[in-house]
Amino acid sequence: MLRIVGLFVFFVVSSGFYVANEECPTNEEYLLCGSSCPYNCTNPPEKVVCAQECIEGCFCVAGYLRNETGNCVLAEECLKAGNTPMCEENEEFMSCGSACPATCSQPEPLECSLACSIGCFCKSGYYRDDATNKCVTLDKCSIKPCTKENEVFDMCNAGCQPSCKDPDPVCTKVCSSGCVCSPGLLRSADKACVSVEKCPSNGTYTGPLSKYLNAINKILHLSYV
Fold first, then answer.
1. Which of 142, 163, 181 is the last residue of a domain?
2. pLDDT of residue 211
3. Is 225 part of any domain?
4. Do 48 and 91 share a domain, yes or no?
5. CATH number of the domain residue 51 falls in
6. Which residues form the signal peptide (predicted)?
7. Is 135 within a domain?
8. DSSP state string for the chain
9. Which of 129, 151, 161, 170 has the fewest CB neighbours in a 10 Å radius?
């Protein structure tokens, strides 16, 4: 059998490249499980709906897109070529936007360790509505109905709720929307919203009722013994 030494064989698979010897062209990286529908200069991220399984091959590294000739170029080069993606209302195209963008359910995301993303992002002061996928101001966010008894929807305090275990939690400034217990009620171990007297107590002065009163008295600048 004739063997050709050093033959570099590859073929194109859905804009990604399968490479026999795992060597990739410039500005590309080899992935064992990359997207089978990778976006490119003429196919912005928001227009790609991919339900296919991942594939193995070479893909453009972060910040690069595949152009019409099959090369991976900086996203800015796509824009210079007149391939500016059409973003929706209150959106703007970014070649390196946050991979953890602000949303209605998470207006103040935690520090994001993921690489930046390419695509359309909400403009400053707007948030991605989880229900409609539109960019809106916080007051226009869709309010999800709270189905459990004694719960109300809160735009910012769902991530740090008073509970029977900790009636006076120390909260960070991170804002998170969701269903919380109605004012005056605490979250029990079984996730129900109950009055403080229904919280289990260990029979000492450190029980939930005492902690709850201490929290109130701290606000009133009183002392509780």
1. 142
2. 59
3. no
4. no
5. 2.10.25.10
6. 1-16
7. yes
8. ----TT---EEEETTEEEETTS---TTEEEEEEE-SS--BTTB-GGG----SPPEEEEEEPTTEEE-TTS-EEEHHHHHHTT------TTEEEEEEE-SS--BSS-SSPPPP-SPPEEEEEEPTT-EE-TTT--EE-GGGSPPPPP-STTEEEESSBTTS--BSS-SS----S--B-EEEEPTT-EE-TTS-EE-GGGS---SSTTSHHHHHHHHHHHHTT----
9. 170
Query: pLDDT category, 64, cuts 50, 70, 90?
Result: confident
Last residue of a domain, one of 25, 57, 78: 78
Q: How many domains does the chain have?
A: 3
Six-digit token pair at 60? Answer: 């453009």
pLDDT for the residue numbered 7: 35
Sequence-separated (6 or more) residues with CB below 8 Å from residue 180: 151, 152, 153, 154, 157, 158, 161
- Mean pLDDT across the stretch 122-129? 92
Identify the domain containing residue 20 by its residue range: 1-78
